[in-house]
Write a structure and sequence with these properties.
Layout lengths: L5 H10 L13 H27 L1 H18 L10 H66 L6 H38 L4 H52 L1
Helix pairs in contact: 1-4, 2-4, 3-4, 4-5, 4-6, 5-6
């Protein structure tokens, strides 16, 4: 008679967290940052709720055990056959059965919704991480295209060596960006294995990012080869000038 299911009802409502809208894709960078913070805040709050939910598992199990013990007691032979007890026994038994069914249904619903919300929030967070990497990759490609195109063959050895050093830094940046692309690929694989409804769109975006990256590599490699060759040429010219000066002093 005293069982109160408000706690379970409230928890179910809190666990039923809606999935972030796909309209987030069209938001400005400032709005996206707020959305990211919002999802992170929801994830923290949800994890707190999840811990609280499962911390009450033993209490739920105790309620169910008590109810089942009551059913056993109602069916006990010592109760059967006693005048005036059958009606009471039936009433208690029916109410206990109803209580057990209510608790089991609500607890199962709560667990299911909690796990589903965890999955959706986790997917939303992973999707935002992918989109962040994609935006950074697009900006990196744009910047790298300018840096590579600005590197020209020097007209003297010292300048050529400076440009070779700059090109070495660029190649290091390429290696670091390759690792970020591998991280994006890992996220794509995770989306497909999870059955994410936008997995195909995300994979297509990754393929485009990879193609853009690969398109930059030949230009950078060509510039590096030209700079290495120019250094060798200037070194040869410098050596010849040194030999020429030495010969002139001996003539």
């Amino acid at each position: 008679d005293t069982f109160d299911d408000d706690m379970l009802s409230t928890a179910i409502q809190e666990a039923d967290t809606p999935r972030p809208s796909e309209k987030d894709d069209k938001k400005t960078p400032s709005q996206q940052r707020r959305t990211t913070a919002n999802i992170q805040g929801k994830l923290v709050a949800h994890n707190t709720l999840k811990d609280e939910v499962f911390a009450n598992r033993s209490e739920i199990e105790a309620v169910l055990s008590e109810g089942k013990a009551t059913l056993v007691e109602c069916d006990c032979e010592s109760v059967l056959g006693k005048g005036g007890m059958d009606e009471t026994r039936t009433r208690i038994k029916d109410k206990t059965i109803a209580m057990i069914k209510t608790v089991e249904t609500m607890w199962g619903d709560l667990v299911q919704r909690t796990e589903q919300s965890s999955k959706l929030l986790s997917e939303a967070q992973q999707q935002q991480e992918f989109e962040r990497l994609l935006q950074e990759h697009t900006a990196w490609c744009k910047e790298m295209r300018v840096r590579v195109n600005n590197i020209e063959v020097a007209d003297e050895l010292r300048g050529a060596k400076v440009l070779v050093k700059a090109m070495t830094t660029i190649q290091t940046d390429f290696d670091a960006q390759q690792l970020r692309l591998e991280e994006m690929q890992s996220l794509c694989s995770s989306f497909k294995s999870q059955g994410h409804k936008r997995a195909n769109d995300i994979e297509f975006a990754y393929i485009q990012a990879q193609d853009e990256f690969e398109a930059l590599k030949p230009t950078a490699s060509h510039k590096e080869e030209m700079l290495q060759l120019s250094c060798k040429c200037f070194e040869y010219i410098s050596s010849m000038q040194h030999e020429d000066a030495l010969l002139k002093t001996r003539l």
